[in-house]
User: What shape does this take?
Amino acid sequence: MALITPLREAVSSLIHDGDTVALEGFTHLIPHAAGHEIIRQGKKDLTLVRMTPDLIYDQLIGMGCARKLIFSWGGNPGVGSLHRFRDAVEQGWPHRLETVEHSHAGMANAYVAGASNLPFALLRGYTGSDLPKVNPWIRFVECPFTGEKLAAIPSVRPDVTVIHAQKADKRGNVLLWGILGVQKEAALAAKRAIVTVEEVVDELNAPANACVLPSWALAAVCPVPGGAYPSYAQDYSQRDNKFYKDWDPIARNRDSFLAWMKRHVLETEDFAGFMRVLGESVARETV
Amino acid sequence: MALITPLREAVSSLIHDGDTVALEGFTHLIPHAAGHEIIRQGKKDLTLVRMTPDLIYDQLIGMGCARKLIFSWGGNPGVGSLHRFRDAVEQGWPHRLETVEHSHAGMANAYVAGASNLPFALLRGYTGSDLPKVNPWIRFVECPFTGEKLAAIPSVRPDVTVIHAQKADKRGNVLLWGILGVQKEAALAAKRAIVTVEEVVDELNAPANACVLPSWALAAVCPVPGGAYPSYAQDYSQRDNKFYKDWDPIARNRDSFLAWMKRHVLETEDFAGFMRVLGESVARETV
Amino acid sequence: MSDVEFSATEIMTVAASRLLGNGTVCFVGIGLPSTAANLARLTHAPDVVLIYESGPIGAKPTVLPLSIGDGDLSLTADTVVSTPEIFRYWLQGGRIDVGFLGAAQIDRFANINTTVIGPYDAPKVRLPGAGGAPEIAAQAKEVFIVLKQNKKAFVEKLPFITSAGFLDGGDAREKAGIPGGGPTAVITDLGILTPDPVTRELTLTSIHPGVTVEQVKEATGWDLKIAADLKTTEIPDAAALTALRDLQARTAKAHGQNAGGEG
Amino acid sequence: MSDVEFSATEIMTVAASRLLGNGTVCFVGIGLPSTAANLARLTHAPDVVLIYESGPIGAKPTVLPLSIGDGDLSLTADTVVSTPEIFRYWLQGGRIDVGFLGAAQIDRFANINTTVIGPYDAPKVRLPGAGGAPEIAAQAKEVFIVLKQNKKAFVEKLPFITSAGFLDGGDAREKAGIPGGGPTAVITDLGILTPDPVTRELTLTSIHPGVTVEQVKEATGWDLKIAADLKTTEIPDAAALTALRDLQARTAKAHGQNAGGEG
Assistant: This one.
């Protein structure tokens, strides 16, 4: 049963050094606040999983939280490279980052297999690609009826998945809508799922067949209004495209990155504090 | 692109003798009208597929339309046996019926695999059951990572799937809600999908993430208000539980079954005709 | 109404419902299991989570469903997912605490038959078949089975094992690699049978008041073991009986009956 | 505005959009493919069905999405399904007519690299990676690729094949068991390249007006074959140019830019 918990406590009690952690989101509903809290608490040696690692993964990697990254597309959407990710892979800064690289189809199927408690995912995939040459976790199995060769990759079964959603009710049942990505599968594939939400309401009033995650399938529900920023929550906020562009020069340089992280994340108390200091930085720039 | 088509034409042009046909529905949204039209048109030698063959399959089997049945639970829900199904299996009347028998988990996964264009479904299933002893289509594969043994069964890929839904728009996009069963997977697993609908509206106004089947993924959309009767369509009709009970004595006896089918199905023009004659029969009984 | 007057079916249903703890996530078969599970929800276990294979999660029906896909299940559920999702993410995903099943036949190791009486290829009686039972029996953390006890149902040897209990007994189930814990209670109209911790043979551990051990043995197709510390089943309390009868009266009014099936 | 003034990027975009027939089901990559696909929808192909890997089916965005998961895609779609469903039921299910991709690098057989420049284990440049491309390239009935032509992008040998075109050419793709038909057009800012029907080597079959064959050869890292019947690309008509510029103006107003990525 998910308790309505402050994010700080959920991260502290549910995420441990060395864990495999997926913070999922597909442009929409990316759990930035939870990522910051992981950085603030100095979690180390994490295996990070995500189809589309973006800014929050760039930050986690640059701050040295990650030992390994399992992913299928790592970039700053609409802008370009993730400089901290590239620096880790190309130069080993702040330390070497092991990578396991898939296609989106592979990762999406691996989450489905994880949620289904299967050891591996079966798909038509990777044929003709060099990915199987560099990823020993891509293998092939034969159909016992037709003899066809199909790709097999291990399930993703994170210790902890973190997602952001629009609403929870007071019992901790969660409702999300719009672009769902792999969030439901990621939450159900994990041993422990943390959901940050825009608001807690009396009744979800979910439409028929909506994406609802029942309280008892979750470990913690944490109210963090705006917790997806600079990503967005449909019907609550807009994506801050400018932040994504502004991130590029900050992240290009190790020192400017570290200074930014210190001021905005390490020295703020929580996400509300981050938003306040960020507001001050933006105001200063635009004066 | 699905054309809005009369049911008679859709059945006539899209379902052929010898086809593998799935009329899916899980208590809710069972396409009875389409089943009657298949009987009226005297389709033969069909391989029928369904997780829960119920009255409409009893009728198809008793009228000699089916050569083979792939299923996982065959009964009259809430009442008892399907007498025509039993007569075919136990006595070979009106002719022998070949059966391929699965569990619900197996069938549900086989539809998913069909919709996903995979040759087989992978599941943890059937262990300790005698089903693999009598069904050669249940095999086992090894996980290439863990060595675990998992069940494998062939995908279900019907020539034609028929489902009933609440609404279509004028372009032929379909919306269904409530208990969805395997209908979406069954429709997407088929070469040709026919959907009977309660009504055709200007705009679907579907909630976010609702179960919508786009027109271009369907072969025909046929307006048949009440076409799930005696099953139901949530927010349109109630299940007629009495009909399910009344079916038991009709179907127990070959002659009473044939007489009923002649009067109510073979000698009626369409589903509206069936409902009219049924109404007369019920009125006569209750006089 | 005196609180000591109750039928054999009523004590069976109330005894089965009592086993279901509050907050338990229960995968419910239609018919007797559904009656017992909903009675639990309406009495001592308001937070029990009822999952039906047609898709409803957290169903709170006001009357007993006649079928596994009644509209009342959908309208009262926390959410309704597809049937494949129920079997893949929720059952196989390992999220079910209790699988609550009925059966046509059962053997001493709580294996279940719902497929055929007689040879498979030339059956004397063709039963409805497996439905969700094989994977519910295999994957729920534990399984309760509720059925009426007589020699046709409690047989020495099943003509067909549809769903595994403890197979040949002992550690046969574990050796076969079946993940869930297996049947922990068989609740009948005569008593409650539980598997011996070592041999896994079903043993009469509780007998309903007014029933004799001879009667139970007579209704069993094998030489039924009787627990040394055989208990007498607690009689249904007035509140549970009232709740059950109200539920059945509401159901009869809505449906005209309350039997059930998977279709 | 005169209708003969247009940039190289504009003729590339318009030429790419023209290839997309009305009613086509198109799996759209973000960036240039998304611009061309939406231009087609806003001009000659109002019934084109745009599918984005984040989940929207039948998206009709009013401005170009900056990312693959913009709210406008969700709000204007016929339905939004999960990302696993997009890849399983819709792409792998064989329902996609055209996969519309971009690329960082391409070779003569239309194989694509979006993974690394330099050795995989010690890359000179770490690119974003595969995203949806390997399976889009493999499973769509045909594939259009749009990218700017220069020697860094059009290379003799790819350091890494992320997504298969025709592999080593000839029937190598079919022999590898790749189901979809593969790339049928590579649209650049200089011309249009199409695979030779037999060797499957990319051949310049259309050149944009004002561009010389020498320029195109100079921008290609291998000895580019030129079609005997080389055509000149039709210039963008005024309506298409207006639609494109309006779309980009709306987009700039909404987003401030229109580049794109998969995140």
The longest strand of chain A covers residues 160-169. Residues 3-102+157-276 of chain A form a domain with the Glutaconate Coenzyme A-transferase fold (CATH 3.40.1080.10). Chain A has one domain: 3-102+157-276. The CA atoms of residues 54 and 76 of chain A lie 6 Å apart.
